[in-house]
Design brief:
Blueprint lengths: L10 E8 L5 E9 L4 E11 L2 H8 L8 H18 L7 E12 L4 E5 L2 H8 L3 E3 L3 H5 L9 H10 L6 E6 L2 E7 L12 E8 L2 H11 L8 H4 L5 H8 L2 H4 L14 H4 L5 H20 L9 E4 L6 H10 L4 E3 L10 H14 L7 H4 L9 E3 L2 H4 L2
Helix pairs in contact: 1-2, 2-3, 5-13, 6-11, 8-11, 11-12
The structure holds adenosine-5'-triphosphate and the ligand CC(=O)N[C@H]1[C@@H]2OC[C@@H](O2)[C@@H](O)[C@@H]1O[C@H](C)C(=O)O.
């Protein structure tokens, strides 16, 4: 039936992700049955303009009101534009844009209207991935771990390994690929490691009017201020047992810790903080992973990568080393999860978000014209 998703077999999904660093929208296609990855397909990127970025950023940390509505309009329009080129897929996974995330108190907010997007593109859309998990007591994040598990099996990994996403916020997934189902106890442990690029970007913007520290060039010229690093590591977040998750700006005050330092020393110290969050995280892994596969923009920062290599006891490599796409992994994840949601399969469990029982989070919206047939 037009606009319906086959109940079995491989389907083609496009995932769309707008991450916390607000560079733009990533879209990536894959073929999957919601369990196994068959193949990866084409991808596309739609950058936000500076004006769009500012409109979305004005909504950060807010739960409702005009700034949130304006941000949602920008997110909807950008996604409708880029996804118009993907109307040939069976299902779209639409993450939306996280504006605020406080699972224990307020909940979690990803703006973007998946029902309207389904109508606009003419393809079923899975969206609002995090709310169900939060309403059942989970953190609502991270959600990529079930996909990381599928990736580990796809690349033929035979021993526990870790996926590290270094976006605005960092998140780590420890995977035992020998366990067939991600929701089985012992297959996964996942949580946010701490800030990754967000404080570095904020520093660069505030001090130099640049969006990020390209190639870690500024940090490379600086010296790490160990006093500030120690204060950072005293944050109770690091001692907390996982699962745990963060909002983009939860560590925004870190900029204050480096306020008196030169630009280069401040950049070096914030970069060291990101690496230290990951080092702390490794101590929570059930067994030492045999390697860490790094995804997200932070893998392109050689200073951050060097700090991780010095601190960790196993190889730390960009995820391209195993043939995966570090720019598109999150978009692929939400395409993969869309198929799972459409087929009633779980997308998170106690060891990824802390939710009591495995849950399939996400709303499936069919294009209205198609569902009327
Ligand atoms: N060449 C580079 N050198 C240094 N840093 C880089 C480079 N390229 C990207 N980055 C950093 O990576 C960031 C983008 O990372 P990414 O696209 O993974 O974030 P995101 O997906 O928006 O975040 P999240 O995963 O938290 O939602 C940039 O804002 C920048 O800080
Ligand atoms: C609430 C939210 O949007 N969290 C994001 C953010 O960006 C990285 C980290 O914090 C992770 O928890 C999550 O994104 C990835 C894609 C995830 O859910 O796996």
């Amino acid at each position: 039936m037009v606009g319906r998703i086959a109940k079995t077999g491989m389907v083609t999904a496009a995932g769309a992700m707008s991450g916390t660093s607000l560079d733009g929208v990533d879209v990536a296609v894959l073929r999957t049955d919601g369990e196994r990855i068959d193949s990866f397909g084409r991808s596309a990127y739609r950058a936000y303009t500076q004006a769009e970025r500012e409109t979305i950023a004005a909504g950060f940390g807010q739960w409702s009101g005009e700034a949130v509505e304006r941000a949602a309009e920008v997110v909807d329009a950008a996604h409708a534009e880029i996804l118009a080129e993907f109307s040939d897929v069976d299902v779209i996974g639409f993450h939306g844009q996280t504006l605020a995330h406080a699972p224990r108190t307020h909940g979690t907010l990803q703006v973007g209207d998946g029902a309207a997007l389904a109508d606009a593109v003419g393809v079923p859309v899975v969206w609002d991935y995090r709310s169900a998990d939060v309403s059942l007591g989970g953190e609502g994040a991270p959600l990529a771990p079930f996909f990381h598990h599928a990736c580990a099996r796809h690349i033929g990994a035979e021993a526990p390994l870790a996926f590290l996403n270094l976006g605005g916020v960092g998140n780590l997934t420890w995977v035992d690929p020998r366990i067939a189902r991600p929701e089985t106890e012992g297959a996964l442990l996942a949580f946010d490691t701490g800030p990754a690029n967000a404080p570095i970007n904020d520093l660069m913007q505030a001090r130099l009017g640049e969006p990020f520290d390209k190639g870690g060039a500024l940090a490379r010229r600086g010296t790490v201020e160990t006093g500030a690093l120690e204060l950072f590591l005293a944050e109770p977040y690091f001692a907390r047992m996982p699962p745990k998750s963060l909002d983009r700006n939860d560590f925004a005050e870190m900029i204050g810790l480096v306020g008196e330092l030169s630009d280069a020393d401040a950049a070096a110290t914030l970069t060291a903080m990101s690496a230290a969050g990951v080092t702390e995280a490794m101590s929570h892994c059930p067994t030492p992973p045999d390697r860490v596969l790094v995804t997200g923009g932070g893998r392109l920062n050689p200073v951050l990568m060097e700090m991780l290599r010095v601190a960790l006891d196993c190889p730390v490599v960009p995820i391209e080393d195993v043939g995966l796409d570090g720019d598109m992994l999150e978009a692929q994840a939400f395409g993969y999860l869309a198929v799972r949601v459409a087929r009633g399969m779980p997308t998170s469990c106690a060891s990824t978000t802390g939710v009591r029982a495995a849950v399939g989070g996400g709303t499936l919206s069919h294009p209205r014209a198609a569902s009327a047939t």
